[in-house]
Amino acid sequence: MNKFVKKSLTVMTLLGTLSLTQPVMAEMASAGNYTIDPGHTFVTFSVSHLGFSELQGRFNTVEGSMKYTPNGASSVEVTIDAASVDSNHQKRDDHLRGPDFFNAKQFPQIKFASSKVHYGASGEPSRVDGNFTLHGVTKAVSLDVTPVGAGSDPWGGYRSGYNASTKIKRSDYGMNYMPGGIGDEISIKLYIELTKN
């Protein structure tokens, strides 16, 4: 057996092993009540800095729930701890928590509560409309949603996951510090994993 054949067989064996160990994530989530898994959920944001770069940040404390009825009256709620903002720079994070930005002492929570879930041709969620509360101001927003997968986990439970995104203007929420240097438009992304109750 030549080296090429041996190498090909090794690669095929490795791919076969991986296919047996990786979960199949193609099914649609089943109906029920779900709770956000905070250890596998991420909320990130980006904003222009002086027109030279896109500042990236995240929130480290997120909780919430979802009531899921496929093609029906589903709902989702997400609560974010404003003080958990993390841009990988302590001095900046302290400033972000203060009155110029999130004012986390006065407005400790950032919230999203759905008002309507829209479904795509596949029958899975494609858009979620709702009310977004930031800095003490509540406004209607829409999240574009992409289902990631659903199914049994290795611990005997059941999970589902979704990615979502939206854009807001911080000035709409009374966050007006340094308008000439910090962009007004904020891109928000949510990477949510939930466990079925």
Describe the structure.
The chain is mainly beta and 197 residues long. The chain has one domain (26-196): Beta Barrel (Lipocalin), CATH 2.40.128.110. It has two helices and eleven strands; from the N terminus they run H-E-E-E-E-E-E-H-E-E-E-E-E. The protein has helices spanning 3-21, 90-97, and strands at residues 32-36, 42-49, 53-59, 62-68, 75-81, 85-86, 109-119, 125-134, 137-152, 158-169, 185-196. The protein is elongated and about 45 Å long. Residues 8-21 have low confidence and may be disordered.
Keywords:
197 residues; 49% strand; eight-stranded antiparallel beta barrel; 14% helix; mainly beta; single chain; Lipocalin; 2 helices; 11 strands
Topology overview:
Layout: H1 3-21, E1 32-36, E2 42-49, E3 53-59, E4 62-68, E5 75-81, E6 85-86, H2 90-97, E7 109-119, E8 125-134, E9 137-152, E10 158-169, E11 185-196
Antiparallel strand pairs: 1-4, 1-11, 2-3, 2-11, 3-6, 4-5, 5-7, 7-8, 8-9, 9-10, 10-11
Gist?
With 197 residues, the chain is mainly β. 14% of the residues lie in helices and 49% in strands.
Catalogue the unreliable spans: 8-21
The CATH topology turns out to be: Lipocalin
Overall 3D geometry?
elongated
Instruction: Give helix and strand order, one letter per element, not per position.
Output: HEEEEEEHEEEEE
Largest sheet: 8 strands, antiparallel, barrel
The radius of gyration computed from the alpha-carbon positions, rounded to a whole number of angstroms, is: 21 Å
Question: CATH homologous superfamily?
Answer: Lipid/polyisoprenoid-binding, YceI-like
Strand content: over 45%
Q: How many discrete domains?
A: 1
Major sheet: arrangement of strands:
1-4-5-7-8-9-10-11
DSSP strand tally: 11
Q: Between the first and last Cα atoms, what is the distance in angstroms?
A: 54 Å
| Name of the level-1 CATH class | Mainly Beta
Question: At CATH's second level, what is the architecture?
Answer: Beta Barrel
